[in-house]
C-alpha cells in the first residue's frame, strides 16, 4: 500500500489522502490531492511534467516540483540548487509522515485488503492532524 497525502505547507494540516496499491505511480493520483485553492504545489520529481493536471485542477497554483538535474551525464548545478530550496519546503510535508510513522506506529500494514488498510490510514491522518495542531488548538481554547 502507498499513502499519498496533500498537506498545507504552512500549517502542516493534511487536507487530502489517497491510498493506492504500491505499484500505482504517484503522478496518477495528483488530481485527487489538489483541492483547487492552492497557490503553490511542491512535489518531488515523480510529479514532474504534470503541469496540465495542475492547470486543470488548481489554476492559480505555481508548479514548484523538483526537476531532473542530470541530462546525458551532465549535471545542471543551477537546477540542483533550485531543487535543494524546493526540498526544504517539502520537508514540512515529510514531517507529517514522520508523525504518522513515529508517533502512531503506522510503519507496516498487514494484508487485510486495501480498503481496510485505507480506513486505518484515514484515522491515523486525522489523529496526526490533531497532534500537529494541538498547540494552536490549545491556544485558541484558552483565549
Count of discrete structural domains:
1
Largest sheet: 2 strands, antiparallel
Q: Strand order, main sheet: write it out.
A: 1-2
Q: Could you name the ranges where pLDDT drops below 50 across 5 or more consecutive residues?
A: none
| SS field, number of helical segments | 5
Average residue-wise pLDDT: 86
Structural class: alpha+beta
Q: Order of SSEs, N→C?
A: EEHEHEEEHHH
Helical fraction equals 40-55%
- Overall shape: globular
Amount of beta strand: 5-15%
Describe the structure.
By secondary structure, the chain is α+β, with helices and mostly antiparallel strands. It has one domain. The chain is built from 5 helices and 6 strands. A two-stranded antiparallel ribbon has the order 1-2. It has a two-stranded parallel ribbon with strand order 3-4. The chain has a two-stranded antiparallel ribbon with strand order 5-6. A hairpin with a 6-residue loop joins strand 1 and strand 2. The longest helix has 26 residues. It is globular, with a radius of gyration of 17 Å.
Task: Please describe the structure with a list of short key phrases separated by commas or semicolons.
143 residues, 5 helices, 6 strands, two-stranded parallel ribbon, single chain, alpha+beta, two-stranded antiparallel ribbon, 15% strand
In short:
By secondary structure, this protein is an alpha+beta fold. It has 5 helices and 6 strands.
Amino acid at each position: 500500500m502507498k499513502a499519498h497525502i496533500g498537506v498545507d505547507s504552512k500549517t502542516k494540516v493534511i487536507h487530502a489522502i489517497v491510498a493506492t496499491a504500491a505499484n500505482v505511480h504517484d503522478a496518477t493520483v495528483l488530481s485527487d490531492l489538489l483541492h483547487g485553492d492552492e497557490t503553490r504545489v511542491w512535489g518531488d520529481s515523480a510529479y514532474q511534467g504534470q503541469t496540465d493536471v495542475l492547470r486543470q485542477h488548481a489554476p492559480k497554483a505555481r508548479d514548484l516540483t523538483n526537476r531532473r538535474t542530470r541530462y546525458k551525464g551532465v549535471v545542471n548545478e543551477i537546477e540542483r540548487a533550485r531543487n535543494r530550496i524546493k526540498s526544504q519546503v517539502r520537508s514540512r510535508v515529510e514531517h507529517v509522515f514522520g508523525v504518522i510513522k513515529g508517533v502512531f506506529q503506522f510503519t507496516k500494514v498487514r494484508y487485510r485488503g486495501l480498503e481496510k488498510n485505507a480506513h486505518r490510514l484515514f484515522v491515523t491522518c486525522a489523529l496526526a492532524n490533531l497532534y500537529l495542531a494541538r498547540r494552536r488548538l490549545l491556544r485558541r481554547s484558552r483565549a
